[in-house]
Amino acid sequence: LQVLCRYQHIWNIDLCFRPSFLAGIMQATGNKPPGMLPKRGEYMLKDVERMAKYYQVPVKISGGVLQRVIGTGTLAAMRFLTAIDMTQPRYLEPLSREFWIQFWSQHEDISQPENILAVAQRAGLSSEVAQKQLEMISSSAVKNRLKETTEEALKYGAFGMPAVVAHFNGEPHLFFGSDRLELLSSVIGEKWLGPVPS
């Protein structure tokens, strides 16, 4: 998320955020979180710290992170992002970034309405607009739209997140994981300038 936002103007790409429901993707593909395997989970915690430093993103890993990630629902946040995408799409990027920071850096529960409203305020939404969007998250229109974008991710071959689909030369290319950005740059014919291009 952070690095693609840094590159969108350098590579002159049309970066479109598509809220999707990760649990639905995992269930549909039979995938399991990598942290469910003890040795892989142990390695992943160290690797995330290294990646955070390399990519210069504020990920903070604390004790019990796996339980927090598994135990904290993101469905309400994804529905809120979906409602924003349907009505106020210009806020989708800053709101996505704020949700990411609150979850991965501040360790806040982004499933609670008061926290969703606080994130929306930090992303620049007025309290009236944010409240109206929050009321939309239980509507069938928002639920159906999130289901559609999740099914679309599955159609492109997603089996987890982060998943990036690059449409290039009339063909979609799926990239999974934050460490595939160099490959993405190669496919689209752009130069990789490191995680923090100047």
TrEMBL record:
Which reactions are catalysed by this chain?
Answer: RX + glutathione = an S-substituted glutathione + a halide anion + H(+)
DSBA-like thioredoxin domain sequence ranges? 2-188
**Coiled coil residues, start to end:** none
Q: Name one GO cellular component term.
A: mitochondrion
Q: Which InterPro entries is this protein grouped with?
A: DSBA-like_thioredoxin_dom (IPR001853), GST_Kappa/NadH (IPR051924), HCCAis_GSTk (IPR014440), Thioredoxin-like_sf (IPR036249)
Q: Does the keyword Transferase apply?
A: yes
The GO terms describing molecular function are:
glutathione peroxidase activity; glutathione transferase activity
Record flagged with keyword Transcription = no
Q: What is its EC number?
A: 2.5.1.18
One of the GO BP terms on file? glutathione metabolic process
Q: Keyword set for this entry? A: Transferase
Origin: domain of life: Eukaryota
Q: Which SUPFAM superfamilies match?
A: Thioredoxin-like
What Pfam families does the database record attribute to this sequence?
DSBA
Family to which this protein belongs: Belongs to the GST superfamily. Kappa family.
What PANTHER family does the database record attribute to this sequence?
Answer: GLUTATHIONE S-TRANSFERASE KAPPA, GLUTATHIONE S-TRANSFERASE KAPPA 1
Instruction: Identify this protein by name.
Output: Glutathione S-transferase kappa 1
